[in-house]
Here is the input.
Amino acid sequence: MLHKGGLIGVIAHPKRIKSIKFGLLSPKEIRKMSVTKIITPDTYDDDGFPIEMGLMDQRLGVIDPGLRCKTCGGRPGECPGHFGHIELVAPVIHVGYARLIRKILRSICRSCKRILLEEKERDGFIAQIKECQRNEQPIDNILKEVFRRAMSVTVCPHCGEEQLKIEFEPPTTYEEDGHKLMPADIRARFEQIPDEDLPAMGMDPKHVRPEWMILTVLPVPPVTARPSITLESGQRSEDDLTHKLVDIIRINQRFQENRDAGAPQLIIEDLWELLQYHVTTYIDNEVSGIPPARHRSGRPLKTLSQRLKGKEGRFRGSLSGKRVNFSARTVISPDPNLSINEVGVPQKIAEEMTITVRVTERNIESMRKLLKRGRKYPCANYVRRLDGRRVKVTPTNYEELAEQIQVGWEVERQLRDGDIVLFNRQPSLHRMSIMAHRVKVMPGKTFRLNPAVCPPYNADFDGDEMNLHVLQNEEARAEAKILMEVQENIISPRFGGPVIGGIHDHISGLYLLTRGETRFDENEALELLRRSRVTDLIEPSYDEAGRPYWSGKDIFSMILPPDFNLTFQAEICQGCETCLKERCEHDAYVVIRNGRLITGTIDERAIGAFKGKILDRITKEYGPERARKFIDDATSLAIRAITRLGFSFGIDDEDIPPDAQRQIEASIRVAEERVAQLVEAYENDELEPLPGRSIEETLELRIMQELGKVRDAAGEIAGRYLGMDNTAVVMAVSGARGSMMNLTQMAGCVGQQSVRGARITRGYEGRTLPHFRKGDLGAAAHGFVKSSYKKGLSPTEFFFHAIGGREGLVDTAVRTSQSGYFQRRLINALQDLEVKYDGTVRETRGVIVQFEYGEDGVDPSRGDYGKSVNVDRIIELVTAEGE
Amino acid sequence: MKGGTLLDHELVPKHEVLTEEEEKAVLRKYKVSKRQLPKIKYSDPIAREIGAEVGQIIKITRDSKTAGKSIAYRVVIDQ
Ligand SMILES: [Mg+2]
Ligand SMILES: [Zn+2]
Ligand SMILES: [Zn+2]
Ligand SMILES: [Zn+2]
Here is the structure.
């Protein structure tokens, strides 16, 4: 508890906090901590001087420069401010305790004021509460039980008084048997509750008396907590809290005058209610049941609760969330020529951001050189001399500073290539949302990053912005380098596989390169491998004319470690009934022997983020640094390959021959007829219900089935005419982007639109739209879209499509907000847990939460897909060696 | 269910009351006091089933997805 001048004492002599006790402020304490009583609603006199015993009294602290606090003598900034108090003419309810007051009112006798429990029962509860508190356990459930028991009692067990029903009208009105209970009556009752009964209600009588929930004295916060601001016009604008306090004092005065003048009871009650309203809204201006207090402009006032609550409130806004220095934010854009652990930083930003270097004997010459550069990048922005003075480096003083520099100075040098920084994209949902990168200073105004690191950040380049933080000390840099660099985070701790790897064109590029037997001569081979630090080409093959050539597979082999072995099925694998393995007709069986790609095509399964098998094996067997090099090489090879081979996609890539078009139309017509037949059978009561379904459900299911089948059939027909040379097909089968489903909808038929998994039925009475007959159960009337996106949708189809699309949008909107809230709660619950050196998971008191981390003690980001060892792989390696 | 116990249910893992020596060994192994162990209520049906007393430690052997078997300890509290 803070008493007069208490804060000052704390600042002068730091003390260790041993424990914190929560309780209520008693009127006595409020008066004791107050430096003055506040009696006048005025703030400043005509000369702009704070009025004594007004809301800006100089004993409450000072905010105007030049003045001194009349309590502690401190200047603005030194004086922490001091509380005052207002003596309320009549007691009022504290809204924050309104519900507890109701519970207590109902739990105590209206006559003898004792808790409505037999002494034995009461003591039983008190013992339970004590035991819980000793074990540091919550007592909420016991209290709930105490009140539940006491409130159900109708006759006092102590004096036999019959209890009357107490009604509560939120926020602050109480009635007993139809008669209003004034705050003074309630307070009088609470005063008489014996101390011995309080522990049963969870109150420690030393620190909490229930009558303190009904205010008779109001603390007035120091002016430093509600500073007024001076507008350009020279006019003063007061804080919302001050406005509210003015209201309270005014009503308080009027109340006093009226009562002294012997005004009629009705007027007194009105004024009392008004005082209650002002005190209520002073504490919480968003209470339901009463209109919020407003500013003259109509804006609701921001009072005490509003300062604390919500996202911008004191807790979430000011304490949990902080603004930091040495950070930058801008739009991101891709640069495939950067390594995955680099980040392109605009020179403008590099010039603003600094790293503080302490001058030593070893670096004094390089620091002097830096200073001698003047204002030319890369240079120094500030120096701190031995006397602690911070001096800006300017075109006029840099030469002088370069001469004066000595050991012990600090130089704030600009960001340079190779500096380690943290890079982050919100929402930071997992630890890979913040990774350490090496700076690469570049022209332009955007941060540049290799597209292979987009998946862990979940970034794209449609306007996304990211943050960058410059590390300020050696420990932070070391930690970032060891734990946070991109290559250290290739394997996700979520599932033990890679999260960084090829996306989009990386996959298409390597797919095109390694598919079939494309041949490249020496020039072409070198050109493709230009950026992939490969020093020697492997042995070429020779064509009929005896000219050397390299296949795409050979070229890809050159970026693999020379002793690398791996066998797996590619994404393009059709899942044939019996796998022909090496002789797979789709070339989907990837075999790598001694660093040579022998058969198979490279696609998402090989190098994709999340799925990339080669990526996964290289990271786990050759370490993060080799994996980084592999990803860099693979992505730049892919980009070079796709650029060289050419890859484009346009609307006419979905063209299918008129013949195919006719086939699709025919099968849709057949399906529509089938639906009509089903409907007819239903209407004639000839439909056999499916087990456990009604006839109506059966009909719906059969129709959905029929229409689902026809969409697949349309896709199948369209797919037959879009061969493996079609770029959209290449992207879909290799896993680069899109799916065959997307192609079906573009070239074949969009298919059934649904809301909550069923055909669309909502709309008008008996029909979805006025275009259809009432009771029409046909395909078109309930949202079947037979057109393709390419052909275009009819107006009714378009409308149904919008209905189906809207459901998806609403879903995502709802899901993100729900999962966001859940994430916040999880983080708050788990943030202090720690894996200790003995492998246990403990919270801050050392209480064990898990006896072995994850029950098996395995860090999934250091294991293999959740297991500590991959036995199959070891067998594979051992047997391969034997071969 | 006649004659069966809670422990027969497939969802109820093995619960055993530790002897004093075992208790000491556990507390020494994890370098903890009893209040730093997870808790179980005296009134918990399984605690009643195996006749655990307040202050005793119960050893729970569960099937684990990750480790096959996992062992946890809980101290019985009065409530
Ligand atoms: Mg975006
Ligand atoms: Zn002061
Ligand atoms: Zn009584
Ligand atoms: Zn196959």
